[in-house]
Design goal:
Largest sheet of chain A: none
Helix content of chain B: 25-40%
Structural class of chain A: mainly alpha
Oligomer: heterodimer
Radius of gyration of chain A: 24 Å
Bound molecules: pyridoxal-5'-phosphate
Strand content of chain A: under 5%
Chain lengths: 80, 558
C-alpha cells in the first residue's frame, strides 16, 4: 500500500469516526473540545498502560513462576 | 407455504368470492395461520396466510444490527452531552440564546421549554435542519428546481443566495403517477375550467357551492372505486379528522394501527370514542383487541360497544408497508365490526389498474365499509374523498363537518382530478400505462437497492421506499451529499420515527425514467459507500416477529 492510498484510508477512517460520534455535526469550537477531551483520555489511557502494565506483567510472571517452577525454593526460604 | 392450502382442501372449505375462506374449518381458526414463521420461512420471509392471499405478500423488516444500534446510541449520547453543555452556556449567557425562552415575568411559572422534544429541537435537530423544508421553485415533477440557501449561524437562520439549483432529480414528492405537471391534458383541461368557472366557489357544498363539476367528480370517483356512492372534500386531512367524528362517538370503540397518520389520530380523538391501538399490521394484536372488546364490552358498565371501527391505511408512508387487508377483512367479518381504510398513498399507486389496495389483493370494495383517500398524491391535485354505501354517503353529506362548513373544491382542481382519473381509467384515449410504469420502477428500484446491500423496509410493491440510515450524523450527511449530487431526497428522523430508526424515504413516480433511476441509484451507491450505509446482512424477519416494546394498547377514558 503506497502513501497516497494509506492517506485516503486514514481520511476515510476519520470520516467514519466523525459520523459515528456526530462530531460531523459540531461547530468548530465543540469539535476542538471534543477532540481535546478524546485525545486527553487516549493519552492518559496509554500513559497509565505504560506505567502499570509492566509492573503487572512482572507480578503475573512471578506469580506463575511461584505456582509452577520455583515453589520448592520459596517454601524452603519461608521455612528457613 | 402449501400447508394451509392443503389443509383447506382437505377440509373442503370453499373460498368465497372475496378470497376469504370460510370460518368453518377449525384447524385454521378464521382462515388465517398465526405467524407462519417456521424456521424454513425465516430466510424466505414470504408470509402466506392460508387461502386469504391471492398473491405473494413479501414484506420484510430487517432487524437493526446490534453494532449499528449501539453506535447510534453513542452518537445520540455525545450529542445529548453537548446539548446539556450548550443549554448550560445559554443559561449563563456565555452563548447567545437564539431559541424561544420564557419571558421575564414567566420565569417562576412552570417551565415551557424543558421537555425532551424542545431539547431535541434546540440541540439535535438544529444541527441538521438544513436537510428539511427546502423551498422549491418549480412544479414538483420528476425533476425540480430548488432555491439555494446558506446559513451563517449554524442553521438558526437561512439566507437565500438568489441562485437556483436546477434539475434536481426529485425522489421526495408523492407524485406517484406523475400527474404533477405544468403541461399536458390535465393542465389544459384545468385551465379551460378555470376560465369558465373561476377559481373560488365561496360557499359550502350544502349551501350554494355545489357545482355540476362536483357531481361529475363524485360519480366518477364512485365508478373508479367500484362503490355505490362517493363524496369529495376540499382537504384530505380534514376528510379524516372531520368524518370519523361523524361516524363514531361516545360508546363506540376505535381500533387504530399504531402508525396511523396524524389525521386519523386527530379524527379518532375528536370523536370521543374509546381508542385502542394495535401493533403495526399485526393481526394477532388486532384480533386480541377485538376479542377483548366483544367479551368485556365497555369499561365499568360492561355494556356492549355500540360500534367497533377499525382504522387502517393502505400504504404506510413511513414504513412502506401494505396493510394485510385480506386478514383485516376476515377479522372484521368474524367480529362484525366496521372497517375504515385510508388509501391516501395506495389509491392510484397499487393494483393492476390503480384502484388501490383493494384491487391489489383482488378483494371486493363492498367489504370495506368506508373507503377514504386523497387526491393529493397520485392525482396531483388536492382534496379527499369518501366512498361507500349510498346510505353512508347520504348520512355524511348531511352530518359531516367538512360538508357543512368547509368551502367546496375549487373547479380547476376538480377538473385536474377528473382528467387524471379518466387517464388512469384509460377513458380519455391517452392511456400511457402510468400504473404499470410505477410498478416497474418500484420493483427495479427496490431490487437494485437491496442488491447494493442497504436495509430497505416495507413491501416489495410499495412505491414508498425507506432506506435506513440510523445514525443522526448520517441523516444530515445523506441529505447534503445527495443534494450535492443533484438528487433531492427526504430524510426522516425523530419524532416521525423511533429515535434510532432514522431513514431516508424515496417516493417513486411513473414520471421517473430508467435513466433517472439509474443516475439516482449510482449516486446512492456512492454515498452509501462514503457513509457506510450498507448495513444489510440479508437476514430478514417477517413483520409478525418484529419486536415492539410499546404497550399493546392504551385506553382513553374520561
Ligand atoms: C394516510 C394519510 N391520510 C391523509 C393525509 C392527508 O391528506 P392531504 O395532504 O390531502 O390533506 C395524508 C397526507 O399525507 C396521509 O398520508
Amino acid at each position: 500500500m503506497d502513501i497516497k492510498s494509506m492517506k485516503n484510508y486514514l481520511y476515510w477512517l476519520y470520516c467514519q469516526f466523525e459520523l459515528i460520534t456526530c462530531s460531523y455535526l459540531m461547530e468548530p469550537w465543540e469539535k476542538l473540545l471534543f477532540y481535546s477531551f478524546n485525545i486527553t483520555m487516549l493519552v492518559m489511557v496509554l500513559y497509565i498502560a505504560y506505567i502499570f502494565v509492566p509492573v503487572h506483567i512482572t507480578m503475573a510472571f512471578q506469580f506463575f513462576l511461584h505456582l509452577f517452577g520455583n515453589q520448592h525454593e520459596n517454601t524452603v526460604s519461608i521455612v528457613k | 407455504m402449501e400447508r394451509p392450502e392443503r389443509a383447506g382442501a382437505a377440509l373442503g372449505a370453499q373460498p368465497r368470492a372475496n378470497g376469504c375462506s370460510g370460518a368453518a374449518h377449525g384447524a385454521l381458526r378464521n382462515g388465517y395461520v398465526r405467524g407462519l414463521a417456521a424456521p424454513d420461512t425465516q430466510l424466505n420471509h414470504i408470509v402466506h396466510n392460508g387461502g386469504l392471499y391471492k398473491r405473494p405478500f413479501n414484506e420484510a423488516f430487517e432487524e437493526t444490527p446490534m453494532l449499528v444500534a449501539v453506535l447510534t446510541y453513542v452518537g445520540y449520547g455525545v450529542l445529548t452531552l453537548f446539548g446539556y453543555l450548550r443549554d448550560f452556556m445559554r443559561q449563563w449567557k456565555i452563548e447567545k440564546c437564539q431559541n424561544a425562552t420564557e419571558r421575564e415575568e414567566q420565569k417562576d411559572f412552570v417551565p415551557l421549554y424543558q421537555d425532551f422534544e424542545n431539547f431535541y429541537n434546540r440541540n439535535l435537530y438544529m444541527r441538521i435542519r438544513d436537510s428539511w423544508n427546502r423551498p422549491i421553485c418549480s412544479v414538483p415533477g420528476a425533476k425540480v428546481d430548488m432555491m439555494e440557501r446558506v446559513s451563517h449561524d449554524y442553521n438558526w437562520t437561512f439566507t437565500y443566495t438568489g441562485r437556483v439549483i436546477k434539475d434536481i432529480i426529485n425522489m421526495g414528492s408523492y407524485n406517484y403517477l406523475g400527474f404533477a405537471q405544468k403541461a399536458g391534458t390535465c393542465q389544459e383541461a384545468a385551465a379551460k375550467v378555470l376560465s369558465q368557472y373561476g377559481a373560488g366557489v365561496c360557499s359550502t357544498r350544502q349551501e350554494m357551492g355545489n357545482l355540476d363539476k362536483h357531481e361529475e367528480l363524485e360519480k366518477l370517483v364512485a365508478r373508479f372505486l367500484g362503490v355505490e356512492s362517493a363524496m369529495a372534500y376540499g382537504m384530505g386531512f380534514a376528510t379524516n379528522s372531520m368524518n370519523i367524528p361523524a361516524l363514531v362517538g361516545k360508546g363506540c370503540l376505535i381500533l387504530s394501527d399504531e402508525l396511523n397518520h396524524a389525521s386519523l389520530v386527530l379524527g379518532a380523538r375528536l370523536s370521543g370514542a374509546t381508542i385502542r391501538i394495535f401493533k403495526h399490521n399485526n393481526m394477532q394484536s388486532l384480533e386480541k383487541l377485538l376479542k377483548d372488546a366483544i367479551v368485556h364490552g365497555q369499561p365499568r358498565t360492561r355494556r356492549p360497544w355500540k360500534k367497533i371501527l377499525i382504522l387502517v391505511e393502505g400504504i404506510y408512508s413511513m414504513e412502506g408497508s401494505i396493510v394485510r387487508l385480506p386478514e383485516v377483512i376476515a377479522l372484521k367479518k368474524k367480529y362484525k365490526s366496521y372497517l375504515y381504510l385510508d388509501e391516501a398513498h395506495s389509491i392510484g399507486a397499487l393494483g393492476p389498474s390503480g384502484r388501490g389496495v383493494v384491487e391489489y389483493f383482488g378483494l371486493s370494495p363492498e367489504d370495506v365499509d368506508v373507503m377514504m383517500g386523497t387526491f393529493t398524491k397520485s392525482f396531483g391535485a388536492a382534496g379527499g374523498y369518501i366512498g361507500g354505501k349510498k346510505e353512508l354517503i347520504d348520512y355524511l353529506r348531511t352530518y359531516s363537518h367538512s360538508a357543512v362548513y368547509a368551502t367546496s373544491l375549487s373547479p380547476p382542481v376538480v377538473e385536474q382530478i377528473i382528467t387524471s382519473m379518466k387517464c388512469i381509467m384509460g377513458e380519455d384515449g391517452t392511456n400511457v400505462a402510468r400504473v404499470q410504469q410505477l410498478a416497474e420502477n418500484t420493483r427495479y428500484f427496490r431490487r437494485r437497492l437491496k442488491e447494493m446491500g442497504f436495509i430497505i423496509y416495507g413491501n416489495e410493491d410499495s412505491p414508498v421506499v425507506p432506506l435506513m440510515l440510523y445514525m443522526p450524523a448520517k441523516i444530515g450527511a445523506f441529505g447534503r451529499e445527495m443534494l450535492k449530487r443533484n438528487i433531492g431526497v427526504v430524510v426522516v428522523g425523530f419524532p416521525a420515527t423511533p429515535i434510532i430508526e432514522s431513514r431516508a424515504r424515496f417516493c417513486l413516480s411513473a414520471a421517473h425514467t430508467k435513466e433517472m433511476l439509474d443516475t439516482a441509484l449510482k449516486e446512492i451507491n456512492e454515498v452509501g459507500d462514503l457513509l457506510q450505509l450498507k448495513y444489510s446482512r440479508h437476514r430478514l424477519v417477517p413483520l409478525l416477529d418484529r419486536p415492539f416494546d410499546e404497550t399493546t394498547y392504551e385506553e382513553t377514558e374520561d
